[in-house]
Write a structure and sequence with these properties.
Oligomer: single chain
Strand content: 25-35%
Number of helices: 10
Radius of gyration: 26 Å
Distance between the termini: 14 Å
Length: 376
């Protein structure tokens, strides 16, 4: 019995760690500290850190960043050095300066990096103006990273951009390094396997006519926005039902795929769904209670794979056609083929907004506390 109790306690500690550190996928990483702020007057602050970058990618960069959060949840000061990115291979000191005031609730600051490469940070310093107008140093925890890093977590720093955040970005490895400017160690964030973002442009799609190429690029841009919004969500979040009349986020992704599949047969084959297609798609197309009952219990990738499969067919079929076909009219609705696919595009945009609305209203998942159950 005693061995069982010890095993359950050990498992509870593992679960607590696994739940505390959320693994996600993205093309950037960051670490931070956050200080609660109370001041009656406007004051200056300054964050200084040493940074260097080793990367063969022109788009890769690093920066020092700072953000103030306000008491009324409005946007405060923010600077991440995006307009002056760090790309130098030699250690240099970089500064971010801003202000806090009576409406400031907290000040967060740290380092960030984007894309593949090795990104080094060391010796963070924070100065806040005192009542005499002098910038005086504020003591930071592990400011020069002398405490050795374990499990990709920097001691005394948040692995994210907010207080208490525990994020593990799969594309980045975080370690202590003997390359430093202060003391024995610095911190190294090493990114690998990251695909650079596509250029923000419309059209010029290989193998497609001009108008169809423009439509494909717009459809793809919106699909990427949907994917980036949901790809790191848990099954609990994907299945969460806001209220009895709402739809789960998983079912909304299926709805986007179903609507696109319908416009494939409508524009490419001049027909509606046949019986087999209705059986496959109608619950997702119509949603309501049928969709709420059917679409749950899957990880987000299940829905994204279906969405991507439908989109691959859309692109392949559109490339077989030209701008003259785009101008042809579907007589049932008196819509041109171009307008039909414009409707698919704006339909994605509409439901992306719905997904964003629902995502912000998902409450934290209640955690199973095995240690508490053991005591009972």
């Amino acid at each position: 019995m005693k061995k069982t109790a010890l095993l359950l306690l050990f498992l509870s500690q593992i679960l607590t760690y696994a739940q505390a550190q959320k693994a996600i996928s993205r093309d950037w990483d960051s670490f931070s500290q956050t200080l609660d702020i109370q001041t009656a007057t406007k004051k200056k602050f300054k964050v200084i850190a040493s940074v260097k970058v080793e990367s063969d990618e022109p788009s890769a960069w690093a920066g020092v960043w700072a953000r103030t959060d306000t008491k009324n949840e409005e946007d405060g000061f923010f600077d991440n050095m995006r307009d002056r990115p760090v790309k130098d291979k030699e250690w240099k000191s970089y500064t971010v300066e801003g202000t806090i005031d009576a409406n400031t609730k907290s000040l967060s600051f740290g380092g960030l990096c984007l894309y593949n490469g090795k990104f080094y940070f060391d010796k963070f310093e924070l100065f806040i103006e005192n009542d005499k107008g002098v910038l005086e140093p504020v003591k930071l925890l592990n400011s020069s990273f002398e405490t050795v890093i374990k499990n990709d977590e920097i001691p005394k720093w948040n692995s994210g951009i907010r207080k208490g955040e525990k994020i593990k970005v799969k594309e980045y490895k975080i370690t202590s390094t003997k390359e430093s400017t202060d003391g024995h160690y610095g911190v190294l964030l090493e990114g690998s396997g990251i695909k650079p973002r596509l250029e923000a442009k419309i059209g010029n799609v290989e193998g497609a006519s001009p108008q169809i190429g423009a439509m494909i690029s717009m459809l793809e841009d919106l699909k990427r926005r949907v994917e980036n919004t949901v790809k790191n969500m848990s099954q609990y979040e994907i299945d969460y039902l806001h209220d009895a009349e709402a739809n789960r986020i998983g079912s909304l992704i299926m709805h986007l795929a179903a609507a696109e599949a319908y416009y494939q047969v409508f524009t490419f084959e001049n027909r509606g769904f046949n019986e087999e297609e209705k059986k496959k798609w109608n619950a997702a197309l119509n949603l309501d209670q049928g969709g709420r009952d059917e679409f749950k219990g899957h990880e987000v990738q299940y829905y994204l794979d279906i969405y991507n499969e439908v989109r691959a067919k859309t692109i392949a079929e559109l490339k077989k056609r030209d701008d003259a076909w785009f101008a042809e009219v579907q007589k049932e609705y008196d819509w041109t083929n171009q307008y039909c696919w414009f409707h698919v595009m704006e339909h994605q945009s509409s439901h992306l907004g719905q997904i964003l609305f629902l995502k912000k209203r998902i409450p934290p998942q209640k955690q199973l506390n095995l240690e508490q159950k053991l005591k009972n």
